[in-house]
Write a structure and sequence with these properties.
Oligomer: single chain
Distance between the termini: 74 Å
CATH class of the largest domain: Mainly Alpha
Number of strands: 6
CATH topology of the largest domain: Arc Repressor Mutant, subunit A
Strand content: 5-15%
Number of domains: 2
CATH architecture of the largest domain: Orthogonal Bundle
Length: 192
């Protein structure tokens, strides 16, 4: 088994974490409410990772993440990802997601269609929900139909897609409430 390392680093939205292996970045953890909770989340998912100084590849990722969260548009193309445990379809979704320009969004359906799998919106949503490479693979740019910006992946911490998109100048719709989902608004009735 390849050893894994991690480090915690400062950003404009709080202390993030990054996990890596000899093959590349394994995961990015956005900040939880407290740094100890960020560390706990990393340990829960990657108990074998040990805190250490990041290698060059992880440093490149950290620099890009810090820049993105300060409003820049970094290029992550030189950052290697360890896709060892990632399904082939999820890899395709992540590759496509990396082509979405800063400040723009796509829906699960649009990505499924672009991948030639128009009936696979649910599978796209699942891949996005499992994205371990937060910000490097900008899953915050992928929304459900209607541009609803709800929670992001388990690595999302307390930061919402809406907040990340606002840093990029995009303005998605607020999330649907349970009331709106269960009782959609009826069209106005014609006067009698």
């Amino acid at each position: 088994m390849v050893g894994r390392g991690y480090t915690i680093f400062d950003t404009a939205i709080g202390r993030c974490g990054i996990v890596w292996s000899n093959s590349g970045v394994v995961a990015v953890q956005l900040p939880e409410a407290r740094e100890i909770d960020t560390r706990r989340r990393i340990f829960a998912v990657h108990p074998e990772a040990r805190e250490q100084r990041p290698p060059l590849n992880a440093e490149l990722a950290i620099e890009g993440i810090v820049a993105l969260l300060q409003g820049s548009d970094p290029d992550f193309s030189d950052v290697s990802l360890d896709a060892g445990g990632v399904l082939a379809f999820s890899r395709r979704v992540y590759e496509y997601t990396c082509t979405i320009p800063r400040g723009e969004t796509r829906t699960y359906h649009e990505i499924a269609k672009a991948l030639g799998a128009s009936g696979a919106s649910y599978s796209v949503a699942q891949a996005i929900a499992r994205n371990p490479y937060m910000l490097i693979v900008p899953c915050h740019r992928v929304l459900e139909t209607g541009n609803y910006a709800d929670r992001i992946s388990p690595y999302g911490g307390v930061i919402s897609k809406r907040r990340l998109l606002s840093l990029e100048g995009a303005h998605p719709v607020a999330s649907k409430t349970l009331f709106e989902v269960l009782l959609p608004v009826a069209p106005p009735r014609a006067p009698t």
